[in-house]
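User: Second chain of the day. Same drill as before.
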Amino acid sequence: MSIYNYTEKTKKSLLESGWFENKQFDTSKYFEYLFKNDFIIHETVKTFLNSFGGLIICFDRDGEQDDIEFEVFKAIDDFHPNWLKKHYPKRTNTILCPIGVAYRGYMVVSMDEYGQVFAGLDDTLIRLGKSGEEAINNVCNDYKGLIIEID
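Assistant: Same format as last time:
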């Protein structure tokens, strides 16, 4: 994992979630489940989940406690796969793989082959960051994200 220049607020949230530098998470069950559900597992996803898989990162958003959870099972089980397999890729021009949920579980979080991270709920799709690390830093610092419009 590359060293990312996290803000102090993000570092605090990461440490409180149980994350530490060079963390390695056993992702084998995640990858089996992704494969079973016909998702393409990019190298970017493997690298990211190895470091952040299983974490629930809490942060303050608009004065309220919120979270982003890198839990593949919830991402697949709680959202219809067509959003990630058909609808959102038309807007991103990339192939998306679910990596978790965010904002109290209301949005599915996915990563593309370039490492960009998106959060979606029905017709709403937001790019949270150009990398997983940037997405974490952005949500922990109440960055609203870039809305990806419907063509």
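The chain has six helices and seven strands.

User: Great, on to the next one.
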